[in-house]
Write a structure and sequence with these properties.
The chain is elongated. The protein has 98 residues and is mostly beta strands. 12% of the residues are buried. Strand 5 and strand 6 form a beta hairpin. It has a domain of 65 residues.
């Protein structure tokens, strides 16, 4: 589960001593980014280090240098799939290692 922080986090020391800061920093240390090649729709794309229950933060596809968000349609240990065709493009996958 991703940690949530109040809007006033850190104000007057809020959240710094109750364990919230430690939890957030621990989570950030688990953030990983991998660049993968696109593929045909509904095809497994290998993502090094991805677990079946890891939280995918974002998938940004670069088509002719233009970034766009692509939604993951399926996730298994080490693989993701997209419902749309991503062939010939690079995709930056950012996920939290749980």
């Amino acid at each position: 589960m991703l940690q949530t922080m109040r809007n006033d986090f850190g104000s007057g020391g809020s959240g710094l001593t109750d364990g919230t800061l430690q939890k957030v920093l621990t989570e950030i240390r688990g953030l990983k980014t991998v660049v993968v090649d696109g593929a045909a729709a509904n095809t497994n794309i290998a993502v090094t280090g991805l677990g079946a229950s890891d939280h995918i933060q974002s998938c940004v596809m670069f088509a002719e240098g233009v970034p766009s968000i692509v939604a993951v349609s399926a996730q298994t240990a080490g693989n993701i799939q997209f419902a749309s065709v991503t062939t010939g493009n690079k995709i930056v996958v950012t996920f939290y290692d749980k």
